[in-house]
From TrEMBL:
It comes from the Bacteria. The lineage of its organism: Bacteria, Bacillati, Bacillota, Bacilli, Bacillales. The keyword Protein biosynthesis applies. It is found in: Cytoplasm. One of its GO terms (molecular function) is translation release factor activity, codon nonspecific. This is Peptide chain release factor 3. GO terms for cellular component: cytosol. The gene is prfC. SUPFAM superfamilies: EF-G C-terminal domain-like (SSF54980), P-loop containing nucleoside triphosphate hydrolases (SSF52540), Translation proteins (SSF50447).
Length: 526
């Protein structure tokens, strides 16, 4: 690395794309990677999604369903910046995984299909970003198609999401009549589908085109000028500080599919998105520029590549410099570990990573050492980063091995898949039966599939339906309170929890047993 440590850290931009399925996340990711030179052919990421691309065929199920159930990390360099994109699965059943990934980024890019406006999944993900004060950059996609009027889209941002916006540019027409964008920030017009030399039309100080131009003859030009005038007069003011604080979202219009507006977006994003920020820990704020290496595990994934049968712990670097072969402390385990097997993530292949700084994501080959949320540190001071959000499972299944002779692979599979964090494991207190809890149904299907394919274990799944799970505050509870409507279980850390039939059963229980203090882990970070 040619730069010094400080410049390296300040050049990092680490983000996730949040969007509703089909808004264009995959297309956008691919275009960004093309600009960054990380992939050579359009279609690489796309093909991965549809399963046509063999080398990234990480999971059989991803291929079968045509959805992305694995979050991956992609890195590229652009204009002196090093960009890390953390992919988040779009399917809502994987929200827990997605939410944790959002703990590892410094900003988010929100892609909205301009014909659909703000959709459900975007709203959920947006809330998590808001909770963490993550700056959000909005890309209104698919302007090459007829969509909602741009002013209506802005109103939706403010009304539905409750965030103020600043349009960095404004579309000139849309759909068949899409001519380009009026770039307020750069005071230029960027034309759609013209030769590169004609792409930009500079504007005068008054925001108009000098002299004659074909685009002026269209009524769309005048309409755009009127709307821009309205924005200048009645819209929010541009404020880099408010963007960085997550209180104002800059809005860009474009069309990812035709690569229009993407480069302008990328360049402005890099200019205004924040570099790695200090993170809270039990020892106060940890400065990304501090010398001692630290990071946390936000994701664990087994068998990313079936040919390797490996398990990877994804670590967000929060301070210092990672060097291959270094020794780190894992405060939870109270022991030192030498990090010799590490990997970084480029779009097309995994490379061995030699060095990484704050903002980067490294993958450590893991043989069962790490858990999600683990902090790793170097230096004398031992500390823990803030807890990662835990999501309260809503759906439950009873699970057992079909073949009693194969209990060993059953237990091994369950243990490893549970550590990845997509499903939670409980045992009933009396019979010690295994129950699985998840946020969505699809996670059970993935579990079943992976148990069979990766651990050679056929399982019997018995549906328990939805339950209201509440943890017991304290280490003891009267086990006789367990019954079918309020089932007492222990989670994998040995903490007691009740699974209530429904909200009514929960209230009834609380009335009858006021001495039992219950809590919902999700309320702790609302
Ligand atoms: P996702 O990852 O958010 O789920 O969305 P993805 O990029 O896969 O895009 C969803 C669909 O929207 C794709 O069409 C894609 O080609 C299309 N799309 C993305 N950006 C634009 C855009 O700027 N303009 C237009 N017109 N379409 C766009 P598909 O038919 O589902 O897939 P495909 O057959 O094109 O691959």
């Amino acid at each position: 690395m040619g730069k010094n440590f400080k410049d390296e850290v300040l050049s990092r931009r680490t983000f996730a794309i949040i969007s509703h399925p089909d808004a264009g996340k995959t297309t956008m990711t691919e275009k960004l990677l093309l600009f960054g030179g990380a992939i050579r052919d359009a279609g690489t990421v796309k093909a991965k999604k549809t399963g046509k691309y063999a080398t990234s065929d990480w999971m059989e199920i991803e291929k079968q369903r045509g959805i992305s159930v694995t979050s991956s990390v992609m890195q590229f360099d652009y204009d002196g910046f090093r960009v890390n994109i953390l992919d988040t699965p779009g399917h809502q059943d994987f929200s827990e995984d997605t939410y944790r990934t959002l703990m590892a980024v410094d900003s988010a890019v929100m892609i909205i299909d301009s014909a659909k406006g703000i959709e459900e999944q975007t709203m959920k993900l947006f809330k998590v970003c808001r909770m963490r004060g993550i700056p959000i950059f909005t890309f209104m996609n698919k302007l090459d198609r007829q969509g909602k009027p741009p002013l209506e889209l802005l109103a939706e941002l403010e009304e539905v999401l409750g965030i103020e916006s600043y349009p960095m540019n404004w579309p000139i027409g849309m759909g068949k009549e899409f001519l380009g964008i009026y770039d307020r920030y750069h005071n230029r017009i960027e034309q759609f589908r013209v030769e590169e030399k004609d792409r930009f039309i500079p504007l005068k100080n008054d925001g108009e085109i000098e002299g004659d131009h074909a685009i002026k003859k269209t009524g769309l030009y005048d309409q755009t000028l009127d709307e821009v005038l309205l924005l200048n007069e009645a819209g929010n003011e541009f404020s880099p500080e408010r963007i960085a604080a997550g209180n104002l979202t800059p809005v860009f219009f474009g069309s990812a599919l035709t690569t229009f507006g993407v480069q302008t977006f990328l360049e402005s994003y890099l200019q205004f998105a924040p570099p790695p920020k200090p993170r809270n820990s039990s020892a106060g704020e940890i400065d990304p520029l501090s010398e001692n290496f630290s990071g946390f595990v936000f994701k664990i994934q087994a068998n990313m590549n079936p040919a390797h049968r490996d398990r990877i712990a994804f670590i967000r670097v929060c301070s210092g410099k990672f060097e291959r072969g270094m020794s780190v402390n894992v405060p939870r385990l109270g022991k030192q570990i030498k990090l010799s097997q590490s990997t970084s993530f480029m779009a097309e292949e995994r490379n061995t990573v030699e060095e990484a700084v704050s903002g980067d994501i490294i993958g450590l080959y893991d043989t069962g050492t790490y858990q999600i949320g683990d902090t790793i540190t170097t230096g004398k001071e031992q500390f823990q980063f803030e807890r990662l959000p835990q999501f309260t499972p809503e759906l439950f299944m009873k699970v057992s091995a079909k073949n009693v002779m194969k209990q060993k692979s059953f237990y091994k599979g369950i243990e490893q898949l549970v550590q990845e964090g997509a499903i939670q494991l409980f045992k009933t207190v009396r019979m010690e039966e295994y129950l699985l809890g998840a946020v969505g149904q699809l996670q059970f299907e993935v579990f079943e599939h992976r148990m069979k394919n990766e651990y050679n274990s056929d399982v019997i799944m018995e549906r328990l339906g939805s339950k209201v799970a509440r943890w017991v505050d304290g280490d003891t509870v009267n086990e006789n309170l367990s019954n079918s409507r309020s089932l007492l279980v222990k989670d994998r850390f040995g903490k007691y929890a009740f699974l209530f039939e429904n909200e009514f059963a929960l209230r009834w229980f609380q009335d009858k047993n006021p001495e039992v203090k219950l809590y919902n882990p999700m309320d702790m970070h609302d």
